[in-house]
Amino acid sequence: MRDLDSDIHLGVFSGGLNMPGSTYHVPVMAKQIKAYLQPGPGMLFLDGTAGGGGHSALLLQAGAEVIGLDQDPQALAECRERLKAFESSARFVESNFRDACEALDNIGEERLLNGALLDIGVSSHQLDEAERGFSLMREGPLDMRMSPRAEQSAADVVNTLPAAELTRIFQQYGEEQNARRIAAKIVEVRATHPFKTTFDLVKAVESVSPRRSAKHPATKIFQALRIHVNDELDALRHALHALPERLAPGARLAIITFHSLEDRIVKVFFREHSREWIDRPEWPKPRRNPDRLFKLLTPHPIAPSEGEMQRNPRSRSAKLRVVEKI
Length: 326
Fold this sequence. Notes:
The strands form 2 sheets. A 7-stranded mixed beta sheet has the order 3-2-1-4-5-9-8, with helices on both faces. Strands 6-7 form a two-stranded antiparallel sheet. The longest helix is centred in the last third of the chain and has 13 residues, at 260-272. It folds into 2 domains: 6-125 and 233-325, Vaccinia Virus protein VP39 (Rossmann fold, 3-Layer(aba) Sandwich), CATH 3.40.50.150; 138-230, Putative methyltransferase TM0872, insert domain (DNA polymerase, domain 1, Orthogonal Bundle). The protein has 326 residues and is of the alpha/beta class. β1, α3 and β2 (65-70) form a beta-alpha-beta unit. The chain has helices at 6-12, 30-37, 54-61, 73-82, 100-106, 124-128, 154-160, 163-174, 179-190, 198-208, 219-230, 232-242, 260-272, 306-311, and strands spanning 44-47, 65-70, 90-94, 113-119, 247-257, 277-278, 287-288, 294-296, 319-325. Helices cover 40% and strands 14% of the residues.
């Protein structure tokens, strides 16, 4: 899901960072992130979704200091190994970005940040590793937990929740038109054969929604379950409201999303907290926005370049939005 623009590929991963055979985390829109965040010596950045360290590497190589968070301990282990050349200026903490402020407090970091980045979604490594249960194309345990501390797996959800609640999840987080029929099928199947693997769920969905296009009929169901299991949208909302207080004036907050639900949340929050004036029909004239926190740097979302999308099809749905703290 992550890729580099060719003109910076060698520069970012020189000096031992490009691990042979490693495809754990190659950052999407690396060139754009570097241009907007403008990292440099003496600056402190939060990488709220460190993954395998791709975006952190960009910031560290520019001379900045980085605090990286990730709820996946496997990702953090890869990140620390990959970036051990920068161990004097990089700290990595096991934490969900929703708890970024608490994580900063716990390591005793009182300085305001010069920038922060959230790259929302699933890494290529998580998708490609069958044991994690994120991919409908690989058979593995029906898990989908980004953190081993998460209470419920996707199997727990489909095997225990009533049909009405499954329908809500599929409609709300997957925008699935056949949500009700798929939920009913799941309840029917689990009565005799509880769901254990990703392919168990794929087969159930296919029996209700046969494949008629290049997009697999279970795609939205897997997305919805992943979002529900990891409470992704609430985590994003919480981070958006908490992070501004830790940003220095002039600091930039960059967020990369991969589907419309996430992007809509970011778009609305940035709009509501960046417009200078607000108006209502009952008011005699517009008033200054008391909730203004930012200057909006991307009136429209930034997309990957054509070259990046060709090299990395998983980057096609990525959207970047950036604001600057006033």
